[in-house]
């Protein structure tokens, strides 16, 4: 089996509950969404076909225990599903970063899913696949990228609507880079005593917009 791969690289995880941990990233090519704040547009089309054997060998070469399969939108390629299983079978800690617009029902139950709920400010809010909510596991995480105060209020409503506090391990609120001040989002969360984790994209703080980091 093959997948079209944009890049495979080793870095520190910049987001989610494993932030700061050395991680190997497998970035798949392609995405059906066009979020206004997207920072990986280079992954829409650029990439090359690699066999599972080639992918797994590159992952082995880096030697990290944590592997993050990302995109683009990795689930846009059907062969992403058996790749996730193959990575889990190697005893790796595997996470999947997905937009929430693709069905996650068939994702291996060992995979730690980090799923976006697209806010109005993304311009792709209508692409959220509501059936995915029922597929989330207690180890999974839901992320909201916040572009403005309206997005924040929308996220609060969705947290209550889907009872996310009792459904997933982490609720992540991430300020859209350059659109919302860290201090503003932090203050909103504190004022509302909202039980969420604010994340600030550690990789961008360290390396800026450099691809592959």
UniProtKB/TrEMBL annotation:
It comes from the Bacteria. Residues 18-209 form the Radical SAM core domain. [4Fe-4S] cluster binds at residues 31, 35, 38. Its EC number is 4.3.99.3. Its cofactor is Mg(2+); [4Fe-4S] cluster; S-adenosyl-L-methionine. Keywords: 4Fe-4S, Iron, Iron-sulfur, Lyase, Magnesium, Metal-binding, Queuosine biosynthesis, S-adenosyl-L-methionine. Substrate binds at residues 12-14, 27, 70. It catalyses: 6-carboxy-5,6,7,8-tetrahydropterin + H(+) = 7-carboxy-7-carbaguanine + NH4(+). Pathway: Purine metabolism; 7-cyano-7-deazaguanine biosynthesis. Binds 1 [4Fe-4S] cluster. The cluster is coordinated with 3 cysteines and an exchangeable S-adenosyl-L-methionine. It is an enzyme of class 4 (lyase). GO terms for biological process: tRNA queuosine(34) biosynthetic process. S-adenosyl-L-methionine binds at residues 37-39, 72. Pfam families: Radical_SAM. One of its GO terms (molecular function) is carbon-nitrogen lyase activity. Mg(2+) binds at residue 40. Catalyzes the complex heterocyclic radical-mediated conversion of 6-carboxy-5,6,7,8-tetrahydropterin (CPH4) to 7-carboxy-7-deazaguanine (CDG), a step common to the biosynthetic pathways of all 7-deazapurine-containing compounds. Belongs to the radical SAM superfamily. 7-carboxy-7-deazaguanine synthase family. Homodimer. This is 7-carboxy-7-deazaguanine synthase. It comes from Pseudohongiella spirulinae. The lineage of its organism: Bacteria, Pseudomonadati, Pseudomonadota, Gammaproteobacteria, Pseudomonadales. The gene is queE.
